[in-house]
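Entry 14. Ran structure prediction on the chain below.
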Amino acid sequence: MRHDLLRAAEKKDVERTPVWFMRQAGRYLPGYRKIRQTHSLTELIANPTLAAQVAIEPVNKLGVDAAIVFSDILILFGNAFTMTDGGPRVKQETIEPKDVRNLMLPDPSELKFVYDQIRILRSKLEVPVIGFTGGPFTLASYLIEGGQSRSFEKTKEFMFRNPTAWGLLLDKISEAAAGHLERQVASGAQVIQLFDSWIGALSPADFREFAFDQTDYLLSKISVPKIYFGTMNAGLLPEISRLRADVIGVDWRVEIKKAWEMVGARFGMQGNLDPSALIGGPALALKRARHILDAVSSKRGYIFNLGHGVLPSTQPELVKKIVDLVHSYPS
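Output, structure tokens:
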């Protein structure tokens, strides 16, 4: 059986609109919270059995149409990162231009625990499994900033003042990320999402000059349907429409119908309910979800999702109501 999510990613007719959520496995679910009482996040990610258990929980509890690998984009840097309450941080010294030529990223074969998790998920689930990695710009920003940033001042200074070193850095990251994705697909991932979370920090001109080539290369290496997602990417959509992706994910800062018009009919579209709507109560959340569903009614290639990840204070019962609403809408 070709699942509806896969069919939507291929721009084919579906029986019902598929839905999954970024960060659908996490702090708002009781099973995850119970496991975290005895395991750190790093330990959990590195344990294929427990990670698969966490990834399966929203499929069983909420009825979503895909499981996404429980991991983090920064595992590509091996033991050089740590997870904190404020988000992931690189433990090593941040990268400077002089360091790039000698930079050695871990071989993706060291991430066997991710590939083992995928095999477990495929053996236990009928729904598709989504693998992922970070976009080259986003991953580079973590190496340069050491963590999340508001202004990306260090990243842009590096990029503008040292374009040769910047290009080499993104080349190295895209090669490592491609190897990681290829191994995920070989292990059974049926869809790939590229999380270019911070790409909205770039202007269209800077995206073209400093990020497009390596991002497109990374997408071109993957043989399964590919979703490209970034936050605050509305201004970049004309440039993103040149990428070799199949589905474009957008956040809530743009009307989804307008976003689809901007990228063109050859793409599928994913999104884009504001995660905060789910903490605004059932009436608001369902109203906003209906607005999105009405806007994409009868269009091939649509996958319902949030515009970013599920917030920790979200009630699982409301997420289930959203799933049921999406499934009830005509495809």
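The two ends are 18 Å apart (CA to CA). Will compare against last week's run tomorrow.
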